[in-house]
Amino acid sequence: MLISILILDLVLVAWSLSLIQKAFDYQEFSFMLAGILVAFCAVAMLFVYFLMGNCLLHFQRILH
User: Fold this and answer.
1) Residue 30 three-state SS
2) pTM score, whole prediction
3) Overall domain count for the chain
4) pLDDT digits (tens, 9 = 90+) for 17-54
5) If DSSP codes are grouped into helix, strand and coil, which group holds residue 27?
6) What single-letter DSSP state applies at residue 57?
7) For the residues of 2-63, what is the DSSP string, one character each?
8) 44: domain range?
9) Residue 9's closest CA among 52, 59, 46?
């Protein structure tokens, strides 16, 4: 599961960088905003994954 999420995050970061590159090429603010939002989504997805992993480990220790 972790590998698939890491691959998805790498794809999101690559997409974000391409959007930011297009923003600089075309001097377009909307591409820059979209790139930043995609990058934030990738970071948030990793953050939530690690939070839930710690939470599930905690619950497993309580139940056993």
Assistant:
1) helix
2) 0.78
3) 1
4) 999 999 999 999 999 999 999 999 999 998 988 888 88
5) coil
6) H
7) HHHHHHHHHHHHHHHHHHHHHHHHHT-HHHHHHHHHHHHHHHHHHHHHHHHHHHHHHHHHHH
8) 2-63
9) 46
